Amino acid sequence: MDIDKLKTVGTNLVLVQEKEGETTEGGLHIPEPFRKTLPKGRVIIHGPNAKNVAVGDTVYFGYAAAQTVTIDDTVYTIIDENDVALYHST
Question: Which of 27, 43, 62, 72 is 20 to 30 A (C-alpha) from 81?
Fold first, then answer.
Protein backbone atom coordinates (compact mmCIF):
# COMPACT_ATOMS: atom_id res chain seq x y z
CA MET A 1 0.00 0.00 0.00
CA ASP A 2 1.32 3.45 -0.89
CA ILE A 3 1.35 5.59 2.28
CA ASP A 4 1.36 8.76 0.13
CA LYS A 5 -2.16 7.93 -1.07
CA LEU A 6 -3.62 7.68 2.45
CA LYS A 7 -5.70 10.55 3.79
CA THR A 8 -7.01 11.29 7.25
CA VAL A 9 -10.10 13.21 8.33
CA GLY A 10 -10.80 16.12 10.66
CA THR A 11 -7.89 17.09 12.86
CA ASN A 12 -6.20 13.68 12.91
CA LEU A 13 -2.45 13.42 12.41
CA VAL A 14 -0.47 10.40 11.22
CA LEU A 15 3.03 10.19 12.69
CA VAL A 16 6.14 8.13 12.43
CA GLN A 17 6.94 7.81 16.11
CA GLU A 18 10.49 8.38 17.28
CA LYS A 19 11.61 6.09 20.09
CA GLU A 20 13.86 7.43 22.79
CA GLY A 21 14.62 6.68 26.37
CA GLU A 22 13.73 2.99 26.20
CA THR A 23 16.72 1.82 28.24
CA THR A 24 18.84 3.16 31.06
CA GLU A 25 22.58 3.75 30.72
CA GLY A 26 23.04 0.34 32.35
CA GLY A 27 20.84 -1.35 29.73
CA LEU A 28 17.63 -1.86 31.75
CA HIS A 29 14.37 -1.55 29.79
CA ILE A 30 12.01 1.23 30.96
CA PRO A 31 8.31 0.52 30.24
CA GLU A 32 6.46 3.42 28.55
CA PRO A 33 4.33 4.44 31.57
CA PHE A 34 7.51 5.05 33.60
CA ARG A 35 9.47 7.11 31.10
CA LYS A 36 9.86 10.76 31.99
CA THR A 37 9.48 12.14 28.49
CA LEU A 38 6.43 12.45 26.29
CA PRO A 39 6.45 10.32 23.16
CA LYS A 40 7.25 12.23 19.99
CA GLY A 41 6.79 11.72 16.30
CA ARG A 42 7.15 13.37 12.91
CA VAL A 43 3.92 14.33 11.12
CA ILE A 44 3.62 12.61 7.72
CA ILE A 45 -0.12 13.20 7.04
CA HIS A 46 -2.55 15.70 8.57
CA GLY A 47 -6.30 16.07 8.28
CA PRO A 48 -7.94 18.95 6.40
CA ASN A 49 -8.97 20.69 9.65
CA ALA A 50 -5.56 20.51 11.35
CA LYS A 51 -4.52 24.13 11.74
CA ASN A 52 -1.40 24.29 13.92
CA VAL A 53 0.93 21.59 12.64
CA ALA A 54 2.23 20.71 9.20
CA VAL A 55 3.82 17.72 7.51
CA GLY A 56 7.39 17.41 8.77
CA ASP A 57 6.74 18.97 12.19
CA THR A 58 7.84 17.11 15.30
CA VAL A 59 5.06 16.75 17.90
CA TYR A 60 5.01 15.57 21.54
CA PHE A 61 1.81 13.93 22.81
CA GLY A 62 0.39 11.90 25.69
CA TYR A 63 0.60 8.09 25.72
CA ALA A 64 -3.16 7.65 26.10
CA ALA A 65 -3.88 9.79 23.03
CA ALA A 66 -2.20 7.49 20.51
CA GLN A 67 -3.53 4.69 18.35
CA THR A 68 -1.28 2.67 16.08
CA VAL A 69 -1.70 0.98 12.72
CA THR A 70 0.78 -1.21 10.86
CA ILE A 71 1.03 -0.86 7.08
CA ASP A 72 3.65 -2.80 5.12
CA ASP A 73 5.60 -3.63 8.31
CA THR A 74 5.82 0.04 9.37
CA VAL A 75 4.03 1.20 12.52
CA TYR A 76 2.25 4.56 12.26
CA THR A 77 0.76 6.50 15.17
CA ILE A 78 -2.55 8.35 14.84
CA ILE A 79 -3.46 11.19 17.19
CA ASP A 80 -5.82 14.14 17.21
CA GLU A 81 -4.24 17.57 16.83
CA ASN A 82 -5.87 18.56 20.15
CA ASP A 83 -3.73 15.94 21.92
CA VAL A 84 -0.46 17.60 20.88
CA ALA A 85 1.31 18.98 23.96
CA LEU A 86 4.22 20.64 22.11
CA TYR A 87 5.41 20.88 18.54
CA HIS A 88 8.42 22.07 16.63
CA SER A 89 8.04 23.36 13.08
CA THR A 90 10.64 22.43 10.52
Answer: 72
